[in-house]
Amino acid sequence: MREWLVEVVRRIKEIGMAVENSTVLIIVNNWGIEETELTRPLRDLKAAGAKVTLAATTLDPCETVPVSYTHLTLPTTSR
Predict the structure, then answer these.
(1) What is the reported pTM?
(2) Which residues touch 10 (CB under 8 Å, ≥6 apart)?
């Protein structure tokens, strides 16, 4: 997920800034964005009471890619 966006949402929650009734614009590319990079900030901001508008670079539908956790496997030790 985009660290800067996660950090903004985290700080808003942490310091208790009033997000309720705020207007937020999220701008994304239409391709290659991880699903959670889009859905988590969108969900969190809406849950905090913000009016969120999602905009993309073209009128085409946004194509998200699923998150792969295969790179997070634990190393094995040789015996």
Answers:
(1) 0.58
(2) none
